[in-house]
Amino acid sequence: MREAACVAVEGRALGDLSRLEPGARGLKQLGILLGRQGGLAPRAGKVSEQLFDFVMKVREGDRVLVMRDRRVLGVGRVEGGYFFEAASEFSHRHQVHWLSLEEFPLVGEGRMSERTLLREIDAPESIAAIEQHLRRVAGPPPGGPKPPSSTPQRGYPLPPLPGLQGRIQAVLERKGQLILYGPPGTGKTYLAEQTAWELAAYSAFGRPFDALSSAQRDAVLQGSETEGALVRMCGFHPSYGYEEFIEGYRPHLDGEEGGPLRFSLRDGLFKRLCLDARQRPHLRFYLVIDEFNRGDVPRIMGELLTVLEPSKRGRDVLLSLSGEPFHVPENVYLVGTMNTADRSIALLDAALRRRFGFLELMPDPDALGTARVEGIALGPWLKALNQRILAHVGRDGRNLQVGHAYFMERGGPLTDFHRFARVVQEDLIPLLEEYCYEDWGALEKLLGGDLVDRKQQRVRHELFAPDRQHELVQALLAPCPELREDEVTSSP
């Protein structure tokens, strides 16, 4: 109910009840339907009356409470008539806007002797307690102006995403956090961001990210003065710590310029995200962590590492600095990226590996399609280069391959030879030089003798001059002659 922004009762086998007639005739029809289900005889009369009232008497603008015994779990304002959701066991529904999802006790209401589907609250002290609670949480008054459409007010169910995004979605649903790992240039960060944007857009607005308005995109990526963004990003590095991620004492000037320097306890990025997620539990919040393995993760996450597992979400731990109880909400998801050329995944802490799902991304030459630049077929050329890396770089060559993203921009393959040549000269060659560790013989085997002068221990960068384009093409194709275009001649 919370995530679907509705109030609902079970009974899918009864079918769509919108066909019921009003008054006693409709109540009799419902009683007959319930009688056919079996097992309801002792309560059939009460159940049919309450379910009939739920379908026929709950109106737009009414306030509804979801309760367990004497505790209120949520207060909402009805925003539509009855409808039937056949895909859910809790299929009889009214759409609501949640005014509050904070739990609180309801005074003036005794414990019910038996389970009920619907009952009316008429005790004055109970109504006063509800009003007081809503004023405290600053909920919008019933019948007041509706918020702008760029502010997400309800949660939508997520459709299954296609391809790799669907695999990421499945791991997040199962584990709550995921690491994308693989060689450089396989599109890990791009895929992590795009998937988080898509899932957050569907959660908040029921539409894909590309279909959102500019204001709605801002709600996903930037947030507002009062509400934080649904998708946030950070990068781990050796000096990144618990203070930036959870909480820590940070310096600031006390008073005007020149005043004494003081330290105050400030919330970190992940703690602020969790606090925002607790205030809007009907939405989903995503944190993308780039270069995950470059940070000291156990130190950065501290005691929260133990409560990341789905079975422990919502369980309080005491923060080490403030001593306050804190928990990770169920609607928070983490997506990390990890470059296996920097550090092997086997070096990660075992406790950390147990709490994260992992998805490997390898070079995909097929992503370049049939793109060619000056006769060089990008996909086959990249595949041949990676085969040479596997053969000559050593046993870690699999993790040191070159990803297809090096030769893509704006979601498509490169089509301009000048840009391709710059990628080779400025990105690819320095990367391969690092892989070979000053072994010029190995570098020659990777790039070919026309491009690498092994005796002089240098790369022939002069071939990248604009007037030597033909020579550069021949040098790049020299290690893989099978990729040269066959010459086609014809006679008159």
Could you please describe the fold and organization of this structure?
The protein has 492 residues and is an alpha+beta fold. The chain has 3 domains: 6-136, no CATH class; 163-360, Rossmann fold (3-Layer(aba) Sandwich); 365-483, no CATH class. It is built from 14 helices and 20 strands. Strands 1, 2, 3, 4 and 5 form a 5-stranded antiparallel beta sheet that branches. The protein has a 5-stranded parallel beta sheet with strand order 7-10-13-6-14. It has a two-stranded antiparallel sheet with strand order 8-9. The longest helix is centred in the C-terminal third of the chain and has 20 residues, at 417-436. It starts with 5 loop residues before the first strand and ends in a 15-residue tail after the last helix.
List the helices and strands and how they pair.
Elements (H helix, E strand, L loop, with lengths): L5 E4 L13 H15 L6 H13 L6 E6 L2 E14 L7 E9 L3 E2 L18 H13 L26 H13 L1 E6 L5 H18 L8 H8 L9 E5 L6 H4 L1 E7 L7 E7 L1 H11 L5 E6 L6 H5 L15 E2 L6 E2 L5 E8 L10 H6 L1 E4 L11 E2 L2 E2 H15 L15 E2 L2 E2 L3 H20 L3 H8 L4 E2 L4 E2 L9 H9 L15
Parallel strand pairs: 6-13, 6-14, 7-10, 10-13
Antiparallel strand pairs: 1-4, 2-3, 3-4, 3-5, 8-9, 11-12, 15-16, 17-18, 19-20
Helix pairs in contact: 1-2, 4-5, 5-6, 11-13, 12-13
